[in-house]
Amino acid sequence: MTKPPSTTGQKIEHAFEKALDPFATALKRATRTPGSDPAATTPAPAAGKPGLKISPLAVPFPTIPPIGGVEIATARAGFYKHERDDLVVFRFARGTSCAGVFTRHKIGSAPVDWCKKHLTGTDGGKDVRALVVNAGCANAFTGKAGADAARRTASEVAKRFGCRQRDVMLASTGVIGVVLDEKKIVAKLPEIENGLDADAWARAGRGIMTTDTFPKGSYAEAEIEGYKVRISGIAKGSGMIAPDMATMLAFIVTDADIHPNVLQALLGLHVRTTFNSVTVDGDTSTNDTALLFATGTSGAPRIGRVGDRRLKSFSAALDKVMLDLAHQLVRDGEGATKFVKVTVDGAASPASARKLAKSIADSPLVKTAIAGEDANWGRVVMAVGKTEEPVDRDRLGIRFGPNVAAVEGAPSATYDEAKMSAYMKNPEIDITVDVGAGRASATVWTCDLTKGYIEINGDYRS
């Protein structure tokens, strides 16, 4: 890893490089001839699995402006049989900070091991220069061979970008139990290097898709001492999604100047109520990775202390981006037709509230009833009671949107089956449960469980 500049000359060179980065990007874009942007003149390459219909809950990919200090390129490395980009590479300016949160799965992948090792080591996350993401091969449960492939990938990218291999972050998604063929990535590095572009967020979003049916992106702005800072992110995930991360990848970049320790604290704070509060099927993956990068090119003062009040606006904007991406994962749940918000109130503790909400959100019986637009709120009662969490049966209350199903531990006197059935036809459903055991609350977002989920996963490798 490159050490922080120590001499006056090195400091000037470092500052000059950072200052020039946005101008270099602008010049690159300005010198394009009209219509020369490939993304604007050619149809978007196929992405995801062929034959999948776009989720009815899909949202359009947002307009994401360039972020100073980061360029992106995509390519087809050939991890999939069909024509599509399946390799995405980010190149960052010198001095970029990085933080990460990863799966708690006991069988983590080689890329997860690589990132955790180098982000938690001495000076970890202080000068990250690249991120390499491939779709189509998870490189998980691949032993030493997989670890060696990850190391060789980082080494080859480091040679190209003039940094140490530990300055290269890795992420993979796809089939478990297949060793990554890093030669496919290495062969595309000349194309990647020539194709680096600050305005490639949409292509990157498509390049990391697996069974996703639409690319997922988000953008927000914040202010630090009068300076505008930008926050952009992309994510992928559709199935094997559960709290404590999921089979998801998320990459967020800001031009703020923030120390890695502060980034880590912010990421850990917001992941609990965003990426760790969504579930599609209750399964957790081997490859879950969320990485947050700060390039420091905005001109805003450096933030080096956790709890700095100047981070208030930034923290809120980061939470907005992360929650938006997390919601999009649920909206693209495999076979999903309903976006469901489950809120538990009156729990004995926040942990208890989360466990109760997750029990409801993960219940196949609850999820299939929602898919069938069946107002069977008795299944919610079942999902609450099976957790063994503190619940006061005689104070239990249940609402579906504005419709009260149960109150004070019994069916509501005002319950209207026709109104409840009509509400269940909505594409977005809110379920609120008060368990009468305390004052804690938690919210988990999920989707329904349909035949489409079985169809997608029944031939995942075919």
Automatic annotation (TrEMBL):
Gene3D superfamilies: ArgJ beta chain, C-terminal domain, L-amino peptidase D-ALA esterase/amidase. The keyword Repressor does not apply. Substrate binds at T210, K236, T247, E334, N457, S462. It is an enzyme of class 2 (transferase). The keyword Thylakoid does not apply. Pathway: Amino-acid biosynthesis; L-arginine biosynthesis; N(2)-acetyl-L-ornithine from L-glutamate: step 1/4; Amino-acid biosynthesis; L-arginine biosynthesis; L-ornithine and N-acetyl-L-glutamate from L-glutamate and N(2)-acetyl-L-ornithine (cyclic): step 1/1. GO terms for molecular function: L-glutamate N-acetyltransferase activity; L-glutamate N-acetyltransferase activity, acting on acetyl-L-ornithine as donor. Its main location: cytoplasm. Catalyzes two activities which are involved in the cyclic version of arginine biosynthesis: the synthesis of N-acetylglutamate from glutamate and acetyl-CoA as the acetyl donor, and of ornithine by transacetylation between N(2)-acetylornithine and glutamate. Heterotetramer of two alpha and two beta chains. This is Arginine biosynthesis bifunctional protein ArgJ. The gene is argJ.
